[in-house]
Amino acid sequence: MSERHVLVLPDRDAAEELSEELSGRFGVTEEPQLVRDALAGEDDAEDAQWLVVVEDPEGRLDPAALDAFAAEYEGWLEAP
After folding, report:
1. 54-67, pLDDT tens digit by residue?
2. Using the 8-state DSSP alphabet, how is residue 72 labeled?
3. What is the rounded distance in angstroms from the CA atom of residue 27 to the CA atom of residue 18?
4. What is the pLDDT of residues 23-72, one digit of tens each?
5. Exposed/middle/buried for 15, CB within 10 Å: 0-12, 13-18, 19+?
6. Which residue, among 77, 71, 56, has the nearest Cα to 6 in the 3D structure?
7. Which residues contact 73 (CB under 8 A, 6 or more apart)?
8. What is the pTM of this model?
9. CA separation, residue 55 to residues 43, 46, 58 (Å)
């Protein structure tokens, strides 16, 4: 069963670092998508969270492990 996981990070640097580590830590082969998520009513880049969208076509990634991994970067796994 194909799944999509969305990791929420506090800034772009954390999102990029996490994205680079995904392959080594979890064997992710598809390039994760980085998306800037401005907080409601805010235009300033300082007030933006970054999302790392991970496609999991075989449904093999453990959500709890992804959440713990995101926490290392002060982030979390968004609930589906």
Report:
1. 999 999 999 999 99
2. T
3. 13
4. 899 999 889 999 998 765 555 555 689 999 999 999 999 999 999 999 99
5. buried
6. 77
7. 9, 10, 14, 15, 17, 18
8. 0.87
9. 28, 27, 9
Phi and psi dihedrals of 68, rounded to 5? Answer: -65, -40
Residue with tokens 């409601």: 40
Which residues on adjacent β-strands are paired with residue 54?
A: 5
Q: How many CB atoms lie within 10 A of CB 28?
A: 19
Tokens 């580590």 belong to which residue?
21
Both tokens of 43, joined, read: 């235009």
79 sits in which H/E element: none
What is the sign, positive or negative, of the torsion defined by CA atoms of 7, 9, 12, 16? negative
Token pair 């392959």 in the structure block, residue: 23
3-state helix, strand, coil in the chain (%, to 5): 35, 30, 35
